[in-house]
Amino acid sequence: MARLLCDFRFLIFPAALVFIYVQFRLFATQSEYADRLAAAIESENDCTSKMRLLIDQISMQQGQIVILEDERKRQDKECGQLKDLVREYERKGLQKLIGKEQLVVAAVVIMACNRADYLERTIESVLKYQNSVASKFPLFVSQDGSNTAVRSKSLSYDQLTYMQHLNYEPVHTERPGELIAYYKIASHYKWALDELFYKYNFSRVIILEDDMEISPDFFDYFEAAAALLDKDKSIMAVSSWNDNGQKQFVHDSYALYRSDFFPGLGWMLSRSTWDELSPKWPKAYWDDWLRLKENRKGRQFIRPEVCRTYNFGELGSSLGQFYKKYLEPIKLNNVRVDWKSMDLSYLMEDKYLEYFANIVRKAVPVYGPDAVHKAYNIEGDVRIRYQDQSEFEHLARQFGIFEEWKDGIPRTAYKGIVVFRHETSRRIYLVGPDSLRQLGIERV
Length: 444
Description:
The protein is α/β, with parallel strands linked by helices. The protein contains 13 helices and 16 strands. The chain has helices at residues 2-97, 116-130, 148-155, 180-199, 218-231, 271-277, 286-290, 293-296, 323-327, 349-361, 371-376, 389-399, 435-439; strands at residues 107-112, 139-144, 160-165, 204-209, 212-214, 235-239, 256-259, 267-270, 300-304, 309-311, 364-366, 382-385, 405-406, 409-410, 418-421, 427-431. An eight-stranded mixed β-sheet has the order 3-2-1-4-8-6-9-7, sandwiched between helices. It has a four-stranded mixed β-sheet with strand order 11-12-16-15. Strands 5-10 form a two-stranded antiparallel ribbon. The longest helix is centred in the first third of the chain and has 96 residues, at 2-97. The chain starts with a helix and ends in a 5-residue tail after the last helix. The model has no long low-confidence stretch (mean pLDDT 87). Its EC number is 2.4.1.101. Its main location: Golgi. It comes from Cephalotus follicularis (Albany pitcher plant).
């Protein structure tokens, strides 16, 4: 018995060790689980905090979405109201024209963008002489863009019809460094002329810009010229502008010329010409495009000696180029010419070549390096020959006229001949190397 008791006591010690080891492992495991539980609780709290932050951000974005949606609805409403207003003014404009189609000579459109003060000055100048002939020359303002001052100014006049060109497509220039403005202008011109010729169905349109004043006989001049435009298909357009129309270079308010160079700046064209031009209208620089030989196809332009428009827009898309030297000194005609009594048949293609050749033939030819000096000492008309562009530019600089060429043609030239007065009534003719042969003055 005592032996068994001894053996039992001997076993208690290892059992105690096992028990202690088990308890130690159990405690270690409980501590590890406690640490994991604490980490899980901390992670859950962090996740909850982030979720609450995300919920707050979503709530804020939902609030912004609601605000933006309200703003969009407001803008849509304003846009709808604006469209209704434009349609109403177009309706009023159409009502004014109903029953008067037979009387209309040409629609007059003022091309505008963002110069409300300039536009007002132009409208007032046009209305001063247009009121008495409003049925013959219905007036429009075409605005490119959404400048509110220009729109408000346009809509404040009951005497005109307002059009608005809105194009939000991005502009991609074809060459680096080009001004986007020239692309926008070309797009606006095409849209406005399409509207006037195809929506309003006019047979002729006179295009003005929002920085022009007109002469007292502006509308009589274009009414007389409209008959020429209809009869002679070799006339591409009729202009009221002379690039060399500065005070010292003009004299005769009755004188008109044909020119191979497109003058622009107040011009009239017919629907038949626009039918040809509209499908291939350029993306930019439309005026230079019209001066290209392949687009003119041998046709010419009618221009006056004394301008019937005056350009006062020193600030514009061309950044004042040429303004001080060439545009500001332009003489605006102040003589009320009775164009209805004038016989303009000499400007028809079949007569003009002979007419012009006769007056050039009478001019005294002057030769030599001092030709300009000699010309000053001759009382009558003078002609000076140039051999190439460089020599022409040298002569032009000496006299002070435009030196610029486009597609091989000097500004204002007819058959290579540039004509201008020089501080008197006498004419100076700068004659190209092949000009006299084209006029039949010299034989091959």
